[in-house]
């Protein structure tokens, strides 16, 4: 019996053993701690008091109105697979479709751009529950904003708009650089120093700070350095087999290891280049990856650097493997896409793929006639949403609604804060989060109320300023009645100070004073002056010096041969005076 007890004591405790919660269990577990019964009771009493003190502190912190910020941010390299969509808030300040969306690496600042030509900056740390941007501006005038990208450090924002020139701004929206525009009269795109058509997409190169790439409708991709905005570092010219010349590059991206560049084109082709190759020809190509004459709106790599997902304007999402690039691994159709910027992204754990869908409206001549008569768009048959698909076969998993009549355009899953952002066609950005698994981000703003403006009901605490305080003493203000009386008596003895000024005369003057009429001011405004007293000779001599300068301007060639100017005689004096003198001499 003793040996059984000793063996029972020596048996190790498994890791899955539930901790004791009752006093009886505590007594059983503490049999071998070497303490007496009284000492164990004292320890339990001390633990109970500490627990009560901790509960009181928690209650006090809750009463102070502190906001639960969620768990601490993780490294963002994986996730539990749970979607942070239990709650959502809207960032709404654009008047048209939000076509560009970017979140910095820390998840603290959001940049949005839209069809209303504006770029807006949102700061989670500085916003209140009103959710208003702190900066808004037009980076390229009346041109749509196609794409935005934060640098890895989050201190620079790259803007791609409907112009051939990408622009670089700092974290607060101040312009840093405007990159060069190419010569539109040069046919070969390799010989131009910049794009010659609108920029459609942009992305920073991973592991290479200060280097980014842009795609354009001029059938080229260009790598730039932030240090030299006058010329690109590398040019990749895309040639279309359909027309044999140019095609619009609608989207591009880098792989996570920065070794591969992928781009989708308007002719339906999908091209892949090595970032260290000459890029004269693509390393891999699929000519009919999507339907022709449709914009491939998004291309994205997974973290394995060989799996690629594309979003086409043909209402499909396709999954590719660069190791077997002949046909897609999986295809999902019937995903409406009316925007050339619709995103496709991988989830944090990369088990699912997400994309946005557009609103489906009623078709047919009757519906179009009804809509035209009513002056409105055709009725909505199906709302846009966020479609969640399995990575294995792109089978549907979940459909997340963003509001009635809204199309989902851009998507971004911020890894640091574990929150999903989706831009819509109504001019808003929906931020989805879960207080249990999300951190920071929108949680910082939800419980923060806007500061109320102070209304001043009383001016008792405000300083009183008396203008002309120095003259107040001379007027007798601030003195006693006796002092004021003595001052007035002294003034009466002064003949100048006690003399009443004469009143202005009305009517004709008398006693050496000039009278004033009621219409005097009217006459003075009409009478501008008397030129009869002006000497005409003096008036003409004012222009003598000016005329002399003009004569030298036109007669400078004869200044030496004819220093004194000789003018022609008047027509009345030509020969008439001489003939009269001869006649008088003959007589």
UniProtKB/TrEMBL annotation:
Matching Pfam families: WD40
Pinpoint the residue ranges of every WD repeat in the record.
Answer: 91-123, 192-234, 242-273, 289-324
Query: From what superkingdom does this record's organism come?
Result: Eukaryota
> By what name is this protein known?
WD40 repeat-like protein
List compositional bias (Basic and acidic residues) regions by residue number. Answer: 1-11, 37-53, 544-553
Gene Ontology terms: cellular component? nucleus; site of double-strand break
- Entries under InterPro entries matching the protein: WD40/YVTN_repeat-like_dom_sf (IPR015943), WD40_PAC1 (IPR020472), WD40_repeat_dom_sf (IPR036322), WD40_rpt (IPR001680), WD_repeat_GAD-1 (IPR051858)
Q: Spell out the Acidic residues composition-biased ranges.
A: 22-36, 54-66
Question: What are the UniProt keywords, alphabetically?
Answer: Repeat, WD repeat
Region Disordered: start-end pairs: 1-88, 472-513, 544-587
